[in-house]
Each structure stands twice: as structure tokens, then as C-alpha cells.
Amino acid sequence: MEITKGIKVFITGAASGIGRSTAIAIAGLGGRLFLTDRNAPGLEETAELARKAGGEVCKLKVMDVSDYEAVKSFADEIHDSFGPLDILMNIAGIALFALPEDMTPAHWKKVIDVNLFGPIHAIQCFLPEMIRAKEGHVVNVASLAGLIGLPWHGAYSASKAGLVRLSEVLRVDLKQHHIGITVVCPGAVETPLKQTVEILGVDMTRPDFQEVKNRFSQHAVSPEKVADQILRAIRKNKFLVITSLDVRFFYYCKHHHPLIYHYVLNYISNLMNSGRYPKP
Ligand SMILES: NC(=O)c1ccc[n+]([C@@H]2O[C@H](COP(=O)([O-])OP(=O)(O)OC[C@H]3O[C@@H](n4cnc5c(N)ncnc54)[C@H](O)[C@@H]3O)[C@@H](O)[C@H]2O)c1
Fold first, then answer.
1. Probe ligand 1: pick from 189, 244, 247, 250, max atoms within 8 Å of CB?
2. DSSP line for 218-280
3. Region 15-30: what's the mean pLDDT?
4. 277 an active-site residue?
5. Which domain holds residue 25?
């Protein structure tokens, strides 16, 4: 769909990273924004940047996407004053990596609640109005981990693979309503997620852990680049967006060169389990 002046766009995870960059990019095109995040100061900052970029920030809401009632009440507020959304973007997410034996049920629940139920809640609350309007676009930001089974990514992969599969189903279900869908599967993106990621069973205060973060940054793309790819996908109604070449290669190997795929996964697993990053 075309992204024209006045287009109504709802974005979760708007306080930083990919959510913020996408909000600013839409603002630059004169979009009307409905922004939400659980991080209040970050959300205010994004709103300020979006206004400076030329957008209209219609509503800001500090809320937790895993709280269905909060999402529903914000959706009602938006629908009452502005009618149906044009674009719904599920970008909020958290990262928690661990071996299964180091995780409690609470860890699994936290990741699934935010990364999978967050988007489900927004879809549940906003989609019926979009369907009545018979147009629109949904963007779900998943991950490389939604496409392949990376070691230590059990809960994160389960949440993101669920989001990828849900998007595949919506692609078929929403066609009759003229609503497009894009699922975004980034590899490394240089965002504050690098600081907030929880890795269980690893001493993240060790100086050599900084080395791991530096390596991540070396092949990470910018959130602005991802925002640009998202906007392009909406315009072309492109379903799958893979944000970097390494991810594309990995995904290709999974389907066409399974031996290489499994070799690389086992190599990564051995590296991670080798004690190089010892348990505290
Ligand atoms: N950065 C990466 O390397 C990378 C790679 C693959 C996928 N992703 C995905 O991209 C999305 C955006 O992440 P980012 O890299 O911009 O990170 P980020 O931490 O900069 O942004 C995530 C935002 O989501 C918000 N958030 C987290 N939990 C929330 C909740 N329960 N309710 C409301 N808001 C909540 C955070 O406050 C934050 O502002 C996430 O879904 C993430 O899983 C990121």
C-alpha cells in the first residue's frame, strides 16, 4: 500500500531501536502516529523526534503489550477518535537466551507473553476494524530465530517462529480483505536490545563478554536500514523481509544445503557450550 500523508500507523516498541526508527521514517512521510511502549521517557523522546521529522503524533501510550486489557482499551480510544488503522506494526520484543536446563517456566512465559502474545493482542484488538475498512497492512517483527533453530534460543525462537507462522496464516486469511502482511526477520541490528538482552548461565560482566558484543556490532545493520526495508515491503506488499545477507545465506542453507546448516549450528553450539563463557 502507498504510504501517504495522514496515513494512520500504530507502532509497538516505539521507544527505541527499530520501532523508533520506523516511527521517524513514517513521520517523515507525514504519517499520523499512535505510539506505544513500556518505556515512558524513550516514548516521549521518539514522539519529539517524530514531530520534528514532520509527523503528527496523535496518541502516545505507556503500556505493556502482554496486558490484553491495556491493548484493548488503547485500541478502543484510537477507534473512537480516529477510526480504523491503516498500518499495524508489532515491533516490541525482548530477548532472553539460555539452555533449557537454566530456564524456569517463568522465563518461558515472559518471552512468549511479550514476543508472541503482544502481537496477538494487537491483532485481536485492531484487525476487526481494519477488516471492516477493507484495507491496510500488518507488520510483525520476528527474527532470524523465527526461521532457524539457533542454540540457546529456545524460548525466543518459539516466540518468533510462532509469529512467523501466524503471519503466514494471516497472509492467506487477510487476502480476501485486501490487507497485506509483512514479517520481518532481522539478524543483528545495532539497537539497545544489545544491552537489555538477558543471557542465563553466562557471566555477562566478564571483560571478554564485551568482545562478543563488539563482534555482534561488526556485522549488525542499523535500525534506520531496517525501517527503510519495512517501508519498502509495505509499498510492495512483500511478505518476508530478511534484513541482512548472512541471514539470507543461513536460511538458504537450511532449505538447500542442510549439511552445511547443521554443521554451522553445531559449531555455534559447541562454541557456546565450550565454557568459553563460564557459568557464574
Ligand atoms: N536488535 C536485534 O539484533 C534484533 C534481531 C532480531 C529481531 N529483533 C526484534 O526486533 C524488535 C525490536 O527490537 P530492537 O532491536 O529495536 O530492540 P529495542 O530494545 O531497542 O526495542 C524494543 C522495544 O520494545 C519495548 N518493549 C519490550 N517489552 C515490552 C512490553 N512488554 N510492552 C511494551 N513494550 C515493550 C522496549 O521497551 C523497547 O523500546 C524486537 O521484537 C526484537 O525481538 C531485534
1. 189
2. HTPBPHHHHHHHHHHHHHHT-SEEE-SHHHHHHHHHHHH-HHHHHHHHHHHHHHHHTTSS---
3. 98
4. no
5. 8-245
